[in-house]
Request: fold
Amino acid sequence: MNFFQGLASALTPAGLIWTLLIITAATFLHELAHYALARWQGVKVNSFSIGMGPVLARQMWRGTEWRLSLLPIGGYVEIDGMAPDIEGESVRAPTRGFAALKPLGKIAVLLAGPLMNLLVAFLLITATLNANGESTPINTRISISQVLPNSRAQALGLQAGDTITAIDGQPLPETYPEAGQQKPGWQRLASVLAVSGNHTLTVERAGQTLTVPFNWTAKIGGVQQKLGVAYGPGVRTTPLNLPQAASKAGQTLVSAVPQVLGAFKNLFVRFFTLNLKTDEGVVGPVGTVQVVSQAARLGGWTLVGIAAAINLSLGFFNLLPIPGLDGGRILLVLVGVLRGRPLTFAQEQAVTAAGFGLVMLLTAFVLVRDLVRFF
Reply:
């Protein structure tokens, strides 16, 4: 499979459409929060665009020009007093609107966007948990989620939804030792398939227990053979009422903080060392569309979960203290408070431009890293 075939198989039209819808909705709510906090403090908002690029339609309402733009990749708000005043060939620091707000007022406007995305993530996670319950992995079970066509697994009669409870007549343990470490029992299948021989799988399907014997050759011509299944630990589902779901969603957001920070740390390390090796922590535009494409095939609550994850990532990313992002702008406001006077307009513009350049380089790096996977 060449590069373009691999890319086309991973990215589906439905996945692309859902990605654009989710990201546009997340960005719209992010910018709407900036808009609301600015207007609440009496600051004029000159324009609010859904989409980017050339404007297709515009309408004045409540002192703001509402725009529909050509490219469905997010949106933006133009808050009065954030951009420089340009008269003829002169550029001056703004003295009204946002620029005239006290530090807490500025921070409120800047913080509103990321907090809105985190709130949306919280609500989506709460709704998902309330509708589907809390899933707890069971290491003593192997759940088969997919059987590849024309694979050995299909020939053996395995089906998506099957649960493997024992291998070679031995029930799966909670953990087992391998290479000096304890592994969860559901990973035993991979360990068994690394060795040639006769094997037997005990499978539960629709309340029935089936025995699936097979002869296995681990390698052919030095190439490791694949059974052709996607699998993971079994799952136990516990129903949750709305308060319980909200509590669990809050715990999920709190526990995500160190994970997200660790993922961004790894991204920056790989960026500055030009390491194009991919990791599961951060994906770029292509990786996002690929994940959404997979979720679109499953539909329903899987897409809701992806929307929650995208809002979570957008919220945390914008809180990073990088000039050009909301977190970076908040940092500049705090620096001004500590100095006893704000940064000069020229200083702020220079720092923001450098931060924006870094964000663009990061975006390009992640995009290249995404594409490298398909070569």
In short: The radius of gyration is 26 Å. The mean pLDDT is 86. The CA atoms of residues 85 and 290 lie 42 Å apart.
